[in-house]
Amino acid sequence: MTAQLIINGISLGAVYALIAVGFAIIFNILKFSNFAHGGFMTVTAYVGFLATRFWHTSLLWTLLIASLAGGMLGIIAELVAFRRIRNNKGPVIYYFVSSITLGMLLENLMTIFFSTNFYAYPNFFPVATVKVGQLLLGVPELIMFCISSLALIILAVLIYRTKLGTALRSVSYDVDTSGLMGINVLRIIQLAFFLAGFLGGISGVFLGISYTLYPQLGQLVVKGFVASVIGGLGSLSGAVIGAFLLGIIEILLIRLVGSGISPVFIFVIMLLFLLVRPRGIAGSHIQEKA
Amino acid sequence: MELLASVLTFTAINVVAVTGVFILTGLTGLFSLGQGAFMGIGAYVAGLMAIKYNFSFPLAACGAVVVGLIAAVIVGLPTIRLRRDYISLVTLGFGEAIAALLNQSVNITGGAMGLSGIPKQTTLLLAVTSAVICLLLVWGFKCSRYGRQCLALRSDELAARSMGINVNQVKMVAFLLSAAITTYAGVLYGFYTTYVEPVMFGWTKSAEWIIMVFFGGINSLTGAVVASALLTGLPEILRAAAEWRIVAYCVIVLLILNFKPTGLFGEYEISLLSLLRPRGNRIREGEGS
After folding, report:
1. Has the ipTM of the complex gone over 0.85?
2. Contact in structure between B69 and B180 (CB atoms under 8 Å)
3. Which of A86, A129, A254, B118 is the right S-S partner for B47, CB 3.0 to 4.6 Å?
4. d(Cα A178, Cα A184) in Å, to the nearest integer?
5. What span, in angstroms and rounded, lies between the C-alpha atoms of B249 and A102?
6. pTM value > 0.90
7. Is the CB of A88 less than 8 angstroms away from the CB of B261?
8. What domain range is B176 assigned to?
9. Is B95 among the domain residues?
């Protein structure tokens, strides 16, 4: 039974990891918490749903359409909400306000267009569970875990093994110097937003499949935030580890105390964690710059 | 007349809440996405004290503010010494936790059904008086040593620290004061509407207040008040296209951010002194008063 819970926790954690990494990529580059990420997830969840409704797409096509839409949304978001602030060298609080505003805007637009009806994704999976030995595994969870892991691995390869990834990491160290070294900083920032939106798209569809579609779906982004805090802000690998840990903790908590009250416990765990190890698991420490 | 009184009362309550957010966001540059939760604490604690134990309004308000302060200490202690982002992320989690708590403890708070039957004690006079008192309080805070230290650490924390400002302590004071004021706004709200439910106090509430503070100009208390009066009062009167209200705010704020990032009022404050001399200079402002 314990093994079963841990496996469920890991597959939940994989989805959280997508959220957390999408959030951490932006944090890494522009050094602010992107509260619009939840908005990305909400919008893409609906885009994916519309695709299944009108084109009867399969799961993979749905994911592709939603994540590409998310990527485009990310690029547009950069253009309307952050480009001018960056050009004017505005203080970091402007990024905050901008991302909060954008997140609210997206959520409210979705509320206006879709809140009158409840929608749900069609059932993509012919079989609900498979039995492996003693363990009963949910097929949706299994597939979500595989796709999420695949996406994360591809992302890791992109960031750590390609020239583009090197540029991305260099910009996250120092924007100005990277520009002087001949990196097109704007393109890299756009790439970061595209990747964040792309990951947001995948997680949005997965959340839409796991729960019903509602305009506040994006508020589950808080799981990604918690995972980032546990893992260490600004660290991609920390975010992944934090997310898996959070998934397991959450499944255990749901088992022990029920799903309603578990946010309280998670909050307390997060506070204790911050007291004991504020740098997070990964231990990277981003210094507050003036 | 009834409508006007109700609009004015809501505006006054919102002004109270926004002054609380102003201390934190405007002065100190911290973003709390859990202010809505503090408001919820205020409404629920005071409401329960009044319903279950027949406490009078002042006692219930004091009790609620104390509970709000305790919650703020619990949230603030681990987070305030860290990078600014933590307080936003952690307060967001705090909001979730409070919502879960309110939803789950059904036999005390009524759960998702909400809490009804709070005595209607908030009058227009009380709300306006509270708003004025809070304004004076926050104005005094802005001009005090703490307020100036807040401004200093908002622009450059490292420099503020090296000038001998106890950054963590100043941030904590700002956070506690802001939490207390917002909790009190929640008390007023609960005793006015007589009915509260957990969904009223989500992160969108907090974000709305941040937008109001920002709309008016992040350095200007005058701006914050004008913005909250404008943004609460007008839609209540117009009523049409109520769902587009927030969308309109967001678009306006994005435009402001892009084209006039200091907000509507910038650093301008209405006061006798600044009317007499050329406006603007923040360094000198407050020293004369």
Report:
1. no
2. yes
3. B118
4. 8
5. 11
6. no
7. yes
8. 2-200
9. yes
Residue-wise pLDDT for B190-228, tens only, equals 888 888 888 888 888 888 888 888 877 777 788 888 888
Of residues B102 and B289, more confidently modeled: B102
Tokens 């006061």, residue located = B271
User: Cβ separation of B257 and A108 shorter than 8 Å?
Assistant: no
Count of domains forming chain B: 1
A42 in contact with B at a CB cutoff of 8 Å? no
Task: Give pLDDT, residue B289.
Answer: 36
CB B237 within 8 Å of CB B6: no
The proportion of chain A whose per-residue pLDDT surpasses 70, expressed as a percent, equals 97
A residues 213..242 contacting B (CB < 8 A): 216, 219, 222, 225-226, 228-229, 233
A290 CB neighbour count, 10 Å cutoff: 10
Q: Report pLDDT for A270.
A: 86
Task: Return d(Cα A142, Cα A157) in angstroms, integer.
Answer: 23
Could you tell me the CA-to-CA distances from A238 to A104, A189, A226, A278, B243 in Å, in that order? 28, 21, 12, 13, 39
Inter-chain CB proximity A104 and B250 less than 8 Å? yes
Beta carbons of A92 and B158 less than 8 Å apart: no
The arrangement of secondary structure in A2-276, i.e. its CATH architecture, is Orthogonal Bundle (1.10)
According to the 3-state scheme, what is the secondary structure of chain A?
A: CHHHHHHHHHHHHHHHHHHHHHHHHHHHHHCCCCCCHHHHHHHHHHHHHHHHHHHCCCHHHHHHHHHHHHHHHHHHHHHHHHHHHHHCCCCHHHHHHHHHHHHHHHHHHHHHHHCCCCECCCCCCCCCEEEECCEEEEHHHHHHHHHHHHHHHHHHHHHHHCHHHHHHHHHHHCHHHHHHCCCCHHHHHHHHHHHHHHHHHHHHHHHHHHCCECHHHHHHHHHHHHHHHHHCCCCHHHHHHHHHHHHHHHHHHHHHHCCCCHHHHHHHHHHHHHHHCCCCCCCCCCCCCC
B257 within some domain? no
Of the candidates A85, A108, A233, the beta carbon closest to that of B261 is on A85
On whether residue B137 sits in a domain, the answer given is: yes
Mean pLDDT (chain B) is: 81
User: Which sequence spans correspond to the domains of chain A?
Assistant: 2-276
Strand partners, A129: A138
Please answer yes or no on whether A288 and B157 come within 8 Å at the CB atom.
yes
In a domain, B16, yes or no: yes
Of B79, B202, B251, which is closest to A274 when you measure between CB atoms? B79
pLDDT of residue A72: 94
Label each residue of B112-140 as H, E or C. Answer: HHCEECCCCCCCHHHHHHHHHHHHHHHHH
* Residue-wise pLDDT tens digits, A123-176: 877 777 888 777 777 888 888 889 999 999 999 999 999 999 999 988 888 888
Rounded to 10°, the helix B124-143/B167-193 angle is 170
